[in-house]
Design a protein that fits this description.
With about 325 residues, the chain is mainly alpha-helical. The protein has 10 helices and no strands. Helix 1 packs antiparallel against helix 2. The two termini are about 35 Å apart.
Length: about 325
């Protein structure tokens, strides 16, 4: 899966290392972060809804939603409850709607590559491949419609005006007036605790791999929100470690999700030759998921997970001391 670009915005002054009297204030950082990330979601959904043939548009939209949700979580104590809740609800809805379309895009890519290999190995007719890809093309077109509908509704609901209003409603007193390192320490502490708990948990199967990846991704996005409190060297080290975790565990979840999608496609396919092809592809994805799952459990054994947890915890404590 191609890496997505981060939204181009500066959340805090990059010349400021987060220490001393020049440390940024939480409310100022929150205003810039909210404006930047909600604008990134709006740009992403405009592209995804336009159906320009960009197969990565849905993926970028989902990532933009995740990062915006991380910002809203990070600054939840200093954002107005009603405004924040409105965006959280819509962001989750966008992410869910884009998820199905993205899954079908990934399935199409896998089928284009995999169906030729399966067809050559088992002598499946070209007509069966074409019928299967045509079925998928119709499903992809149908799956994109909810995203376009959401885009229209959010435009009518005044997404951009609401984002501007939320940005201007950030609490400037109390905890909002704290320096960013002090504020980040409070917000990162419970997320780090959950990550540490999951790192200590025995990784028995696919469900445990998925849960550990979810907690890791949540921590990764939150660390990104507060990235300016870290030195350049420490920030890069944390990003490499968390990126490697997401990449390794993501390979397993990709195969597992592909198997689920192929099972769904099998139930939607009527032509006999196409059903046979999907069945063989499904078996291959399940075998790959088992193989990669075993490799993940060996690579990310408990001691390795705990070392990663200690590395992130130490970096956060040093940056927020």
């Amino acid at each position: 899966m191609a890496a997505s670009r981060r939204p181009r915005c500066v959340i805090a002054d990059p010349r400021d290392d987060g220490h001393g009297p020049a440390a940024p204030v939480a409310c100022d950082v929150a205003r810039r972060a909210v404006a930047c990330h909600l604008d990134a979601v709006w740009r992403a959904i405009e592209i995804a809804a336009s159906d320009r043939g960009d197969t990565e548009a849905m993926h970028r939209l989902r990532v933009a939603c995740r990062r915006s949700l991380a910002v809203l979580e990070a600054f939840q104590p200093i954002l107005p409850r009603s405004g924040r809740k409105w965006f959280v609800t819509r962001l989750r809805l966008i992410k869910r709607s884009a998820g199905k379309a993205r899954d079908l895009d990934v399935m199409n890519d896998r089928l284009v590559a995999g169906s030729h290999r399966v067809g050559e190995a088992h002598g499946v007719a070209v007509s069966a491949r074409r019928a299967l890809l045509e079925t998928l093309r119709r499903e992809r077109r149908t799956a994109r419609e909810p995203v376009a509908t959401l885009h229209r509704r959010l435009r009518n609901a005044g997404w951009q005006a609401r984002a501007t209003k939320l940005q201007g409603s950030v609490q400037r007193t109390g905890i909002g007036a704290w320096t960013l390192p002090r504020y980040a320490r409070r917000r990162l502490r419970p997320v780090l605790a959950r990550f540490q708990q999951r790192a200590d948990h025995r990784m028995r199967g696919g469900r445990d791999i998925h849960r550990f990846r979810i907690e890791g991704r949540r921590l990764r996005y939150l660390v990104e929100v507060f990235s300016t409190i870290f030195s350049e060297r420490v920030r890069r080290r944390c990003e490499r470690a968390m990126g490697r975790l997401q990449s390794d565990l993501g390979e397993f979840t990709d195969h597992a999700a592909a198997a689920d999608r192929l099972g769904w496609l099998f139930s939607r396919t009527a032509e006999r030759g196409s059903r046979q092809m999907v069945k063989r592809l499904l078996r291959r994805e399940r075998d790959d998921a088992k193989r990669v799952g075993r490799a993940c459990r060996r690579q990310w054994r408990r001691s390795h997970r705990q070392n990663l947890s200690r590395t992130i915890t130490k970096a956060v404590r040093k940056a927020t001391a």
